[in-house]
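Quick one - first record:
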Amino acid sequence: MHDFAVIGGGIVGLSTARALLKRHPGAGVVVLEKEASWARHQTGHNSGVIHSGIYYKPGSLKARFSREGAARLVEFCEEHGIAYEICGKVIVATERREMPLLKNLHERGRENGLGVEKIGPEELREIEPHAAGIAALRVPETGIVDYVGVAKAFAGEIAEAGGDLESGTRVEGISERGERVELLTNRGTFRARTLVNCAGLYSDRVAAMSGVTPPAKIVPFRGEYYELSPERRALVKGLIYPVPNPDFPFLGVHFTRMVEGGVEAGPNAVLGLAREGYRKADVNLRELAEILGYGAFWRLAAKNWWTGAGEVFRSLSKGAFVRSLQRLVPEVREGDLVPAEAGVRAQALKGDGGLVDDFLIVTGERSVHVLNAPSPAATACIPIGESVADRASEKAGSRWMGRRF
């Protein structure tokens, strides 16, 4: 019998388990992960950006947790010798019609407590000599980091604090038995007083399995990347972003220097044909049918069909992908790009066809479920983990079996 069982060994699940053990030393905490190692999905397939919080609605969980999370993430990396760099980024307007959006972003960044500043073409070229634009925002708080290294360090702290780490353990059924929750897995039954669901791409299914009706369904979006060839990495010094479409949750194709020295270009965002569909050829017919049978998906598609069509075209045409990049860095050529590993975003979609635009955490009788934690969840992983741990502690309450909080 464990006090807390956490499903999901990504950076949010591990952060939550770590927070539980810090709050309740000596508690029985187990992390169940279906893969053979940690951070194999969203955590291990992102570009490693430490987000500043400039894009998010002031007062939202994303805005609050990004600011706090970035600062605490840097402290953690310093303590554990994990590679990171606060290099800043530029958000570049290339057309006059983008100027009002750039102005709104500037104001939002200021509201969120950032030191964002508006710069002209000359200052932009000083920061990024090969970038082109009529104006830009410089966001000094943005950085890059090794998120897999952070997740592994979390796992190390959990083990040192007496927590149990169970990789290769797939949850196949959940049932409540009196004052406990039973989790049926491929490696036997685990029992806990409180369940925490951080299952990412499968978080809605785990919630339903535990008897909680999720208020949104996960729809996977594959983010497709290229990398600049080593001899062309000098075209990008740091992070170069376009002005994003405010009606779409993706930031547009951009350039990201990574901590190991490479430069990613992307992502292009298209519907994933499987929840873990990292390749274009990856198709799960059951999961695809589930998406196509969800009326909210068609409402989303009807509203954003033009943007979606552009993403699909760019997915099929490297030339179109390159032309999008050339708006930011005109010197980029097709031959400069080599295919890179894709990622899959677990995006929650509400029944009315609206995308959930903030972190979404719901509770059941003996459970807490993280149902929307895409980017910037990795940046915000420490405060998210503490928030989820607080809710799980409240659920444990009198069922703590005599332990003192």
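second record:
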Amino acid sequence: MADLGKFQPLYPEDPVLGPLLELAAELVAECHRLGGQAGAPVIHALRPKLRAMNSYYTNKIEGQHTRPADIERALRQDFDADAALAKKQRLAIAHMEVEAQLEQQSGATSPRNLFSPALVREIHGLLYGKLPEADRVTDEGKPIIPGEYRRDDVTAGRHRAPRWQEVEELTQGWADRYRALAGTGALLIGTACSHQRLAWIHPFIDGNGRAARLHAHLVFHAMGLTQGLWSPMRGLARTREQYHARLSNADLPRRNDLDGRGQLSQEELVAFARYFLEVCLDQVRFMRDRLDLASMKERLRTLLLQLQGKPWQVGSEKSQVKLEALEALHYIAMAGPVERSRFIAMTGLGERTGRRVMASLLDYGVLSVESSRSPIAFAIPLSSLKFLFPNLWPEAEVD
């Protein structure tokens, strides 16, 4: 029988909660401001890129990421001839698909009910189940069975994970504690703490970090805080060394009588929770800056000038982009799709020129259509990010 005391505390005691609760309240307030700031067409256009970015960064933490442009190619089923790179591409696509699937699945679920061993196993099972069998192998050559707890004892860094026979009971104890939390602030702090403690259990032979990060992402989503616009993954990857150090430090044993009453250090668990929530707060504020819609028109102008000055081949003709398309493009970005004839009319250009400009913007990808007769919608191709949302995904700008 597993000793559930060996990874206590799972949640900080009341005397040390004050600063964390203040941080949680600040995070909630910033999330609500972000949700009220972004327009639906921009959110709809940006979400696919943010999903790709989440995948890129969670895999970067594990040292198994690929270039943003390679992810774009994989989305078109264009996998690299290099087997190692193609494997990373498949992993990136799997993460994107699972994130989208589980967001939809968990949207109507009470956030507290997401602290579930079944969900943790489902996350892992879906993620690795989408990979071919040849990809489901650890660096040591051991098979990764999707959704199955490990059947080996393992060491992760300095941490010797609990015996494999204890994993099931420990994971159930983990779920029972966090599911009992009440209130938004407590749930946010609990999500941070639960992330560290799930990593401590290390329930799977591989993929524990990815599963734990997806789990935290889903809890925030179910709480209505992300709006599909941010995730801890980007911030954790950009502070990767600190992330690993904080995770590791929270594994340390209790120091003295002032360090909580569990076997592990409460001080270090609080430090991890504070770091995790600060990362989230930083990401929300960062996205608020990126989604400054007051400057969107000027950013669209910059993009059009860039495209106008660097024509490319569109079929048998060169592209044609004119600044007269700015008002129509800005309207679609703010208000939503319009009929093609209306877009052309809004440019003020003649029919033939207007159609060529529209065709060029469709070819570039800043406009999109679902079918040959559907309205024109706003879109965000990877190459436009450095103009429309600078520094959002710096690695994509390099590509």
